[in-house]
Amino acid sequence: MRRSTPVKTRGLGRSLAWASVFGALVWSAPAGAEPTFPAALQKEFKNQCAVQCTLCHTSPEGGLDNLKPSPISTGPVALISPNRGTGEFFANLIRIGANGGSPHYPASDDALIAMVKLLETTPCDKMMGTPCDSDGDGTIDTKELAEDEDPDVIDKPGDYCLGPKYGCGAHIGNIPRESSATREAAAVISLLGVGLVFLRRARRR
Amino acid sequence: MRKDTHTVRTRGVWWRVLAAALPLLSVLFVSKPAHAYSWMIRHGYSGCPVCHADPSGGETLTAYGRAQSDLLLRMRYDGKKAEEAEPSPASRFLWFMDLPTSVLMGGSIRVASDYENKQFSVFPMQLDVYGQLRFGSFIAGGSLGVIKTPPGSLYGRTSQITTNQGDQYNLISRTFYVGYDLSNEFTLRVGRLNLPFGVRIPEHTMWVRQTTRTDRESGQEYGVALAYNAESLRGEFMPILGNYQINPDKFRERGYSGYLELMAGTRAAIGVSSFYTYAKEDRVTLETSVARGAHGPFTRIGVTDEFAILGEADLLTDSSRALGYVGFVQGDYEFVQGLHGMLTVEWQDQGQLKSEKVAAMRPRPGDGKGEMGLWVSANWFFLPHMDVRIDAIQRPSDFSLFTQLHAFL
């Protein structure tokens, strides 16, 4: 009679452990409103850093409520700092990315990259046969992106990475790892947890 | 004898639950601060060092703080009043571990869900461990954690030790320091520290903490802090030497931050805080030559045993913006021990950027125009070291329903 409670608890612990393992293994990076576009561009163009949100937004924190003007919304632009672009790149991206259909914002990383690829191959307008050069400096936007340059600004190479870098003695970051690393890390720690349960049980015996 | 057997069993259960929970903890990789409940003033606790290693409160608990957390903070199911009860064995580090008196250890783990803009997301928020060692009057402490934040997000970035700039994992340290107790009242610390400013609340996204950048999620700076804690007066002043985890140097802010708080009665305190820094370039707005400041009063009042009020109002001075303001008032009612309901009103106008290209812009809420936010919150401390919290946050820009499960080690 007195042993009934521990037995039940042990069953509960085991269930929790296995449920946790299952949960951790199927865990994937959260979807939804995560601002992953800078990382997607960084990966696509193999940039030395992730682009600042101000390439397309009026705030360094990004967000749907502060997008720069485009064929969808032509509201006023709040420029972030002196000599930053006025948003032609974003407007061109939305316009060309529509590919003849209704202009829309990209709904995923893949959709964004598809729009960027269109920007690379589609003439900016009927008069000009070349892809968009938003800042008019003679270099098309996608080439500027590949060279760590801000396609909205006539400036120096590397100005794409104009914000602060974080970390001790921070150098410019690497290309983001694949998301499977998340699951691998979770699985390793999960197994550690299960191991602890069995180790504890073995010691008791 | 039966009690001993029960204690052993209880320890075993907690150990098993902890081990079983470890895999779940493996998904917890992002950031947010731990706990510092300024409304503890309702119990007559005006000062912080009694319960926390940080002289201005937050994170690492002292042994006494652990006991009070168990007696006063969590819901009790044994029918005993706090003054009749003994701290449970589960109040120890990791629920079961006794530590030497010279060692303080702790940690904080949070999982959250958010419903915002018609989108629901579940995400890990925090995995931090922290502690402090004492050698006589010398102290040394700090924290280590892991974050995974998207590019563009400012959360946790300023605490990075590793240097990944994308959405990779990063090792972080929010605080690390060495210090010396100059006397019973004075403590001197050098290192990376929480900024002494205003009411030390856990809601790091509340405007009063986020706009002033004085939150404990990512607002720490390198500096030298002198703290004073006496019965009726407490304060801390910290010359800020810059955050050396932000590069290059032009983005580092240097100046000072400090506060002074006077007890006005046994359960009421009023204080004033001030903050002023200069950076060659602002890390958020990228404006150049920015002198940023915040100055204003704050208060904490334990109105009754159940009801406490916190409030703060700051004037914002920023050389790149027009004059601004930010503040909040929060009422916290403890329905039964361990179950809190909170109503918070916050307001702000950061001041519009002065840049010529922006000057023609219409002022927006919070950016040249005042805005208000309302938080309706509930916090249930349902087990030792564990609580669940829900916040319904209405701001002009959006509505958010935010929940979090929090365990502190």
Summarize the structure in words.
The complex is a heterodimer of chains A (205) and B (409). With 205 residues, chain A is an all-alpha fold. In chain A, 42% of the residues lie in helices and 1% in strands. Chain A contains six helices and one strand, in the order αααααβα. Chain A is elongated and about 85 Å long. The two termini of chain A are 21 Å apart. Mean pLDDT of chain A is 68; it is low at 1-10, 19-34, 76-83 and 171-184. Chain B is built from four helices and 20 strands. The longest helix of chain B has 24 residues, at 2-25. The interface between A and B is large, with 74 and 65 residues.
Assign an overall shape of chain A. elongated
Distance between the termini of chain B: 29 Å
Q: Give the number of DSSP strands of chain B.
A: 20
Return the structural class of chain A: mainly alpha
Helix content of chain B: 10-25%
Walk across the major sheet of chain B and give the strand order: 1-2-3-5-6-7-8-10-11-12-13-14-15-18-19-20
CA-atom Rg of chain B in angstroms = 21 Å
The biggest beta sheet of chain A, please?
none
Structural class computed from helices and strand pairing of chain B: mainly beta
> What can be said about the biggest beta sheet of chain B?
16 strands, antiparallel, barrel
Mean pLDDT of chain B: 85
Number of helices of chain A: 6
Rounded mean pLDDT score of chain A: 68
Oligomer status: heterodimer
- What would you report as the Rg of chain A, rounded to the nearest angstrom? 24 Å
Order of helices and strands of chain B: HHEEEEEEHEEEEEEEEEHEEEEE
Strand content of chain A: under 5%
